[in-house]
Amino acid sequence: MKDGRIVVITGAAGGIGRKIVDRFLANGDRVIGLDRAETSLEELAASRNAGDQLSTAYVDITNGPALDAFAESVRKTHERVDVLVNCAGFYPVVPFEQMTPDQWSEVIAINLTGTFRVTHTLLPLMKGRGWGRIINMGSASVFEGVVGQTHYVSAKAGIVGFTRSLAMEVGDHGITVNVVAPGLTLTEPVLSSMPEKLIKAQSELRAIKRDEQPKDLAGPVFLLCSPDADFVSGQLLVVDGGKIKH
Fold it and tell me: 192-210, pLDDT tens digit by residue?
């Protein structure tokens, strides 16, 4: 299955999500972009001029009933989902001793539980055809840890375990499940919240000595969703320019 797929991408209006949307659109796939940033979703749809090849849905992935309604809409319109890319993320910086239980819970809810909710809700639309792809966005930060992001790194470590276990459960259905783990990527939230010194230090530690851009993630995600990756599942692909060797 190479083109004409039904592809659901969460966090589609974000910096990385938009580039992933573009990559699948370029392949002729039908893309459904989810995000809780309604204005950004509208801008995405308007700027791509993709007609009915791209549709968007304002959905909070922590809201179970909203996800159920979305899945029913997809079932009625398309009857299936071929590819799911769980790209939605939330990564605030809060020192651990100042972190409240509510802040911890919110980050876990979006980055880990949200991925579970979306996948659990859409999996019935993926089974039964002998082929499918699930890509979960991880983070290379799980190898080193990040000051001020204990909640986020913990959630992304959970994504690795979730992916490996789910891969074992759905392999008989021809569905592969993998993690793409970016390094520090220059999205708008990163540029507005991360110190310039920290950003510069990342590029100096890489084999490829430049900043990581959102477009650097689109190709690896697409590769793992191609027939060339039919025998790749339960794996963690680090895309950080060669900083982490694991």
Answer: 767 777 788 888 889 999 8
How far is 82 from 134, CA to CA, in rounded Å? 9
Q: What is the pTM of this model?
A: 0.94
Say if 69 falls within a structural domain: yes
Q: Residue 246 domain-assigned?
A: no
pLDDT per residue over 48-91, tens digit each? 876 789 999 999 999 999 999 999 999 999 999 999 999 999 99
The CATH number for 25's domain is: 3.40.50.720
Residue 94's alpha-carbon distances to 90, 114, 146, in angstroms, are 12, 21, 11
Domain holding 54, by residue range, is 6-239
Residue 244 located in a structural domain: no
Q: Does residue 3 register a pLDDT over 80? A: no
Count Cβ neighbours within 10 Å for each residue of 113-122 and write b for 16 or more, e otherwise. bbbbbbbebb
Q: Among 79, 161, 165, 162, which residue's Cα sits nearest to residue 126? A: 79
Question: Choosing from 70, 90, 152, 162, which is the catalytic residue?
Answer: 152
Whether residue 204 contacts residue 234, with contact meaning beta carbons closer than 8 Å, is answered with: no
- What pLDDT, in 10s, does the model give residues 100-137? 999 999 999 999 999 999 999 999 999 999 999 999 99
- Residue 58 designated active-site: no
> Is 110 exposed, middle or buried, given 0-12, 13-18 or 19+ CB atoms closer than 10 A?
buried
